[in-house]
Specification:
By secondary structure, the protein is of the alpha+beta class. Helices cover 30% and strands 32% of the residues. The protein has 6 helices and 8 strands, in the order ββαααβββαβαββα. The protein has an 8-stranded mixed beta sheet. Helix 1 crosses helix 3. The two termini are 27 Å apart.
Amino acid sequence: MIEDIGIAGDEHDAEAERTLSWRAGAVSLAALDMDDAELLHGWRSDPVTAHHMGIWPVALSAVRERIELDIEDNERDDFLILTADRTPVGHVALTGQSLANGTAEVELLLDPRHRGQGHATAALDALVDLAFGELPMYRLTAETHTTNTPALTVLTRSGFTQEGTSRAACLHRGSRLDVAVFALLRPEWEALKRPRAWDA
């Protein structure tokens, strides 16, 4: 699920020496680790995030357990999004990877204090370049509620096409929400007129 969300705490100093996994112009990606649990817990606890993603806030211990499981999951890669000065501004992931089929799903969370600065699009572009430029992916998908305008905008800017709508696919706070289904294919990515992450 794609989301444009909240963050708690300032972890800038802790990120100063972090090893970068992928550089991409305005942002870089660093592999998620257990020390990031408090950051993710803060993001997931944000009311706007909970609404747009249809999730319930969970205990910090549950977030730690989830990260530990995700790190061991060979079908996903999770990254912290860092600005040029190593400020953490969100989380992005490539999940449900099938190398046999060349498919995966993208997920994105962004600190609301850093909205409107292009970080969400930059991070998604970086993840897409990783998927198509370093991994043998052919099709990437993403889903978000049809009312989540910021996420819909970011997906469109990054070249994704809305393929359809899963009607009433999510129950949240007593309401049924429609979910927009997006996809980006390798030939479409190749046709995009923008610098690649490795050109930064």
